[in-house]
Design a protein that fits this description.
A 6-stranded mixed sheet has the order 3-4-2-1-5-6. Helix 10 crosses helix 11. The two termini are 33 Å apart. It is built from 14 helices and 19 strands. The chain has 443 residues and is of the alpha/beta class.
Length: 443
């Protein structure tokens, strides 16, 4: 999407506010072309700068960048940026001549600037994360585009495993030698490989890549967690990554009912309470779409969190029913004791930024509602000995400015694949119940 170097006429990229909030570095993402900010965008940035979330931080960062450029000249006339692009702020007209449109709407005032430049014969491209705004611009005859600098192709997203057709001899060698060294495969580190006998599809072997042409057997001690056993090969792969202390970051993608959150919690409880590999299990999720703070709900912090974390509570109750090592108290009392003893902590993502989190098993649920920058911020909080697990379904996104290809979870999968500290699995089969499976498949 990012513009290539212009060889003749410079393009005029008119940016919507949501582009700057989505990526605070977007000002310099259009090479040596014009970057146009309507005055309404500056006003909207001003309204966001007081927020104590990622949107507020992005707004403040962009405002500081613009202020630094102001010292180099007149923003009204245009100021040259480091990448040779020109940043210009334009005050909108009160109306669009010949067009009946409500100019009290901020989006329409931004479009008025794009339309004015378009009418002057400029090569204008309106950039917005808002689909409706792009539709309006297109109706005005203006070229439009989404901001796609941090975007991947979801249809071709890395799944974390692959099927490979091999000879009978190779499958036999894999089982006899507890691994396989061969040539010509180019596996990614920590990628799972299902070796399938070309002459007998039922003759298989499941391994994990430790090199471009090297596979090892899965670790038998990682086949369950907190008495939860895998119900599919994808769940078995997920448990391998979740239970392996050498893997510091795990991403799990799957539709509702595939078990991604349950497996992550089961592994977290096993590693924290039974193995004592980590000091605490920390669970978080985006509290409100668009990153709003939990202050929008009534009650104390814990009361607010209890509403948004109810799916986590439900899974914890289910898992504690499987624990018979302590017999005192009801299941609910056991869950409450985990929080009282600070072995399990629920936290809003708003409060994770700025923290250093050492020796904790961290689960971020519903991570598909985070931007790439937010995911980077969260992962960078990991201290020594911490394991991070991000789960979500990129096809179920509440954030209106993200989609299956531009959200932070998908972006992390694409960028981190093959790293020795990282592993990923896409779970495809619903295991919650037959009804859940049918609903996920047909509705």
């Amino acid at each position: 999407m990012i513009a290539s170097k212009s060889t003749s006429v410079r393009k005029y990229f008119v940016l919507d506010t949501n582009v700057l909030l989505h990526n605070a570095e977007s000002l310099t993402s259009f090479d040596d072309n014009y970057v146009i900010l309507p005055m309404t965008v500056i006003e909207e940035l001003d309204s966001f700068k007081r927020h104590n979330d990622e949107l507020g931080r992005s707004a403040r960062h962009v405002i500081r960048q613009i202020d630094q450029l102001r010292s180099q000249g007149s923003l009204k006339d245009g100021v040259t940026m480091e990448n040779s692009g020109i940043l210009q702020i334009i005050v909108e007209r009160k109306e669009m001549p010949g067009i009946c449109i409500d100019m009290s709407v901020p989006d329409n005032r931004i479009l008025a600037v794009a339309n004015s430049l378009h009418q002057e014969g400029k090569k204008v491209i309106f950039v917005s994360k808002d689909i409706n705004a792009r539709l309006k611009a297109d109706a005005l005859g203006i070229d439009v585009m989404d901001f796609e600098k941090q975007k991947c192709n979801f249809d071709e997203l890395y799944t974390g495993w692959r099927d490979v057709q091999v000879t009978t001899d190779l499958v036999n060698r894999f089982h006899e030698e507890k691994g396989l060294e061969t040539e010509g495969f180019d596996f990614l580190l920590n990628e799972f490989v299902l070796l399938q006998d070309a002459s007998n599809p039922k003759h298989t072997g499941l391994g994990r890549a430790v090199g471009p042409n090297s596979l090892v057997h899965l670790n038998g001690s990682y086949d369950s967690a907190w008495k939860v056993h895998s119900r599919s090969k994808e769940q078995r792969m997920a448990l391998e990554l979740l239970m392996d202390p050498a893997i510091s970051l795990v991403t799990l993608i799957g539709q509702a009912g595939t078990g991604k959150t349950l497996l992550a919690l089961a592994a977290g409880l096993e590693c924290v309470l039974h193995q004592e590999s980590y000091e605490k299990l920390l669970v978080s999720r985006p509290v409100i779409p668009m990153g709003k703070d939990i202050g929008y709900l009534p009650g104390t912090k814990d009361e607010k969190l209890s509403l948004w974390m109810q799916p986590i509570f439900d899974n914890l109750v289910f898992l504690m029913q499987k624990d018979h090592r302590t017999e005192e108290g009801t299941v609910q009392q056991k869950v409450n004791m985990l929080f009282k003893d600070q072995l399990v902590e629920l936290e809003a993502l708003t409060y994770i930024r700025g923290r250093s989190i050492p020796r904790q098993f961290v689960i971020v649920d519903e991570a598909q509602n985070l931007t790439p920058h937010e995911v980077k911020t969260i992962i960078s909080r990991a201290g020594e000995g911490t394991k991070m697990v991000l789960t979500g379904d990129p096809q179920q996104i509440d954030n209106p400015y993200l989609d299956s290809s531009s959200n932070g979870l998908s972006y992390a999968v694409e960028k981190l694949k093959g790293q020795y500290l990282y592993g990923h699995v896409t779970l495809s089969k619903s295991e919650r119940s037959p009804l859940s499976a049918i609903a996920a498949q047909l509705l």
